[in-house]
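Budget justification aside, the reviewers requested a transparent look at the raw inputs and outputs of the sequence design task funded under Objective 1. We therefore reproduce one unedited record. The lines immediately below are the structure tokens for a 428-residue chain.
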């Protein structure tokens, strides 16, 4: 029996989708805990590309139970589109997918307000995906939210929508000079979604607890990354949920459990989408090279990712916040042929060397990376099938990270496909 949580160590896009897909073979249950279709996880299996926005990546394996947990916000159109896409690919998940009745719905006014809020911020924009995720969580907290379970009662849903939409239309018209939204059309659309979603709706917290009691291997997939966490990330340049381990447990309805395996997924370099601080960012030159070679474009929006050297300070911060027990290092192959490599081991902040991430925002732009320089390698390592067949300099790069963090690297990814995965320690 094991529960393993996969968490991103930086700003998301660390390659969690591939790692979850790989680990999913030995799990019986795979679950998403938080976030919405602002997440994008790319998995490549036998040359076929799959991009997940709501479904947990592990459902590509036959027979695995997939769960969308209590902490998620769900756009029904997006979810049904993903389900249909997999069905067209011959991977029907309809008999093994469950959607929490406690998850909240994303509605049309959430997407509209997302765009309005970004425009108001002007030069201080956050760089959201525009999918309505922040406003949906805002409604959840302010108790205007409508939950997935409300779709099961047509009369109740109609009543809740009427009250909420009256308020939102008042806001759109009087505060933002925008046209009101049609109640009848939204009601018709969402009752249509309800008829398609009802077979999936369940008390998923109870299900997961029962699976846990039965000794099933449960894999919980975190979306985004530690530095986008609402409390522990680079606020306000963060997401609207809790991608850290505590948020994952909360988002699937599990309490404190013994022997929890926490796998931190860390790219061999660091990337970030959108606005906000990024101490090791490389502008031009090497940053552009890493972006093109690594295919660093957002899976959800297609936006180019900002690229830089691996930030070890943030990696250790993420290890502390999450209680990481092992690491998966991804995209090591991208560094082949780069030449001397760098890992940030500390920051210089106002002349003082610090080895932890500052919690005071005004210091973030003052963080000057202190680098450890390491020898690179020229070889293409994407076809290597054993860790010990890697070039010695690649092994030293991996082992430096282990020594620096005092956390074992269990998995090394050297390519996009499942088979491009070197396992040094079994998770399940």
């Amino acid at each position: 029996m094991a529960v393993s949580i996969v968490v991103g160590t930086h700003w998301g896009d660390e390659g969690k989708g591939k790692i979850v897909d790989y680990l999913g073979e030995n799990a019986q249950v795979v679950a998403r805990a938080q976030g919405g279709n602002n997440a994008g996880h790319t998995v490549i299996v036998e040359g076929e590309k799959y991009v997940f926005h709501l479904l947990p990546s592990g459902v590509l394996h036959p027979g695995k139970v997939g769960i969308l947990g209590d902490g998620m916000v769900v756009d029904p159109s997006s979810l049904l589109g993903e389900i249909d896409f997999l069905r067209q690919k011959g991977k029907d998940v309809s008999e093994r997918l469950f959607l929490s009745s406690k998850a909240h719905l994303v509605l049309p006014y959430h997407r509209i307000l997302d765009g309005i809020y970004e425009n108001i911020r002007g030069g201080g924009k956050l760089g959201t995906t525009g999918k309505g995720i922040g406003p949906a969580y805002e409604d959840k907290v302010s108790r205007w939210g409508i939950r997935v379970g409300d779709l099961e009662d047509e009369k109740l849903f109609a009543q809740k929508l009427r009250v909420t939409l009256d308020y939102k239309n008042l806001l759109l018209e009087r505060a933002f000079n925008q046209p009101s939204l049609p109640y009848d059309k939204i009601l018709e659309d969402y009752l249509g979604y309800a008829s398609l979603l009802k077979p999936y709706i369940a008390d998923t917290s109870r299900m997961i607890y029962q699976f846990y009691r039965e000794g099933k291997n449960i894999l919980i997939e975190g979306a985004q990354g530690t530095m986008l966490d609402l409390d522990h990330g680079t606020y306000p340049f963060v997401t609207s949920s809790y991608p850290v381990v505590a948020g994952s447990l909360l988002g699937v309805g599990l309490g404190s459990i013994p022997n929890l395996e926490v796998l931190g997924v860390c790219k061999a370099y660091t990337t970030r989408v959108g606005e906000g601080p990024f101490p090791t960012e490389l502008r031009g030159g090497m940053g552009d090279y890493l972006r093109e070679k690594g295919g660093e474009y957002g899976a959800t929006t297609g936006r180019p990712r900002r690229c830089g050297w691996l930030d070890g300070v943030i990696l250790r911060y993420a290890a502390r916040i999450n209680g990481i027990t092992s690491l998966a290092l991804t995209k090591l192959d991208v560094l082949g042929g780069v030449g001397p490599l760098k890992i940030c081991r500390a920051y210089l902040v106002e002349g003082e060397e610090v080895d932890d991430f500052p919690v005071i925002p005004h210091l973030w732009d003052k963080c000057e990376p202190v680098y450890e320089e390491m020898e690179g390698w020229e070889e293409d390592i994407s076809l290597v099938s054993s860790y010990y067949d890697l070039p010695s300099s690649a092994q030293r790069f991996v082992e430096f990270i282990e020594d620096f963090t005092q956390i074992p690297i269990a998995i090394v990814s050297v390519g996009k496909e499942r088979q491009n995965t070197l396992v040094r320690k079994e998770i399940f």
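The chain is about 30% helix and 20% strand. The longest strand covers residues 65-74. Computational costs for records of this kind are itemized in the attached budget.
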